Amino acid sequence: MGLNPIADRDVIRLSIPPLNEERRKELVKMLGQHLERARIQVRKERDEALKSIDHLERDKKISEDEKFRQAKDIQKIIDDINKKIEEIAAAKEKEIMTV
Predict the structure, then answer these.
(1) Which structural domain range is residue 83 located in?
(2) What is the pLDDT of residue 1?
(3) What angle do CA 17, 19, 22 make, to 5 degrees?
(4) Is residue 16 part of a domain?
(5) Residue ranges in the chain assigned as alpha helix (H)
(6) Does residue 12 sit within a domain?
(7) Pair 30, 36: CB distance under 8 Å
(8) Which of 7, 16, 45, 55 has the maximum number of C-beta atoms within 10 A of its C-beta?
(9) Of 93, 99, 97, 78, whose CA–CA distance to 32 is shortest?
(10) Domain count within the chain
(11) Is residue 81 part of a domain?
(12) Spatial contact of 42 and 82, defined as CB atoms under 8 Å apart
């Protein structure tokens, strides 16, 4: 990583070199991997919520109309979350690539 530790009594100092273009691209690639993991986790949570709604409908605790209304609300929330994730990732990518 190019870090040179310097021991100074009770403190260890690390001299961190500025990022070069290659390292910036690696960081953006890592950001993409984290972004994909976040999307997968959001989909898993959505699927669990939809299964929960299906169980409630099967157990006659909610009506079919309520099931569809809740599913629609969940999808709206998921869309908002995905939009926020994309915005954060775009801002972070811009920050990483800025020299």
Answers:
(1) 33-99
(2) 58
(3) 130
(4) no
(5) 21-58, 64-97
(6) no
(7) no
(8) 45
(9) 93
(10) 1
(11) yes
(12) yes
